[in-house]
Amino acid sequence: MNKNTKHFTMQGHAGSMEGLIDMPLDGRKPRGIALVAHPHPLYGGTMENKVTQTLARAFVALDYVVARINFRGVGQSEGTHDRGHGETDDMELLYRHMVEQHPDLPVALAGFSFGTYVQSQLAQRLAAQGTPVERLALVGSAAGKWQMADIPPDTILIHGENDDTIPVQAVFDWARPQDVPVVVIPGADHFFHRKLGHIKNWVIALWLGKQLQKDDPEDG
């Protein structure tokens, strides 16, 4: 993604897993750790999915150390798809690995589609362990398809108006009882074709509480 992107491998519960780490640009001091989860492995989802990369770019711009892994059976990651259970376990291993490397930094969780299910489950698990994460950013939340866990009220939820994979109404129905706002991108489909810049801009703006910037032409 940038000149500071590095490949790494780590041991997961089902074997070796491959990942990517992005450092803040220009040697800036990291302000946190962000773990980004990709969409469904059985439908072409990888850590290099465009929405996943856009989330990574947003957190790099926020000066976070960003880590991604390919879930089981994707790319060079060993094992087979485990319906989100093993994937959540492996994401927790990534969490612990990154906290060991950067023990004084807060941790944010981000995900797209199936990855939102994994991150909501992980956030709930870590909170129950007494180590809640800093905040979540979830795009194309898998409400209605997967048993999404409840999320903190400051979670950033972004969804496409024309998402025919996960209808926006399903996200409203899940978010409404939790009183969590949903940012709806007009005209966007599930994969945010030609709308990726909105994801990056909204995540950065809501994370910092600032006004939106003009779209970055590199974001598609």
TrEMBL record:
<dbReference type="Pfam" id="PF12146">
    <property type="entry name" value="Hydrolase_4"/>
</dbReference>
<dbReference type="InterPro" id="IPR022742">
    <property type="entry name" value="Hydrolase_4"/>
</dbReference>
<dbReference type="GO" id="GO:0016787">
    <property type="term" value="F:hydrolase activity"/>
</dbReference>
<feature type="domain" description="Serine aminopeptidase S33">
    <location>
        <begin position="44"/>
        <end position="146"/>
    </location>
</feature>
<keyword id="KW-0378">Hydrolase</keyword>
<dbReference type="InterPro" id="IPR029058">
    <property type="entry name" value="AB_hydrolase_fold"/>
</dbReference>
<protein>
    <submittedName>
        <fullName>Alpha/beta fold hydrolase</fullName>
    </submittedName>
</protein>
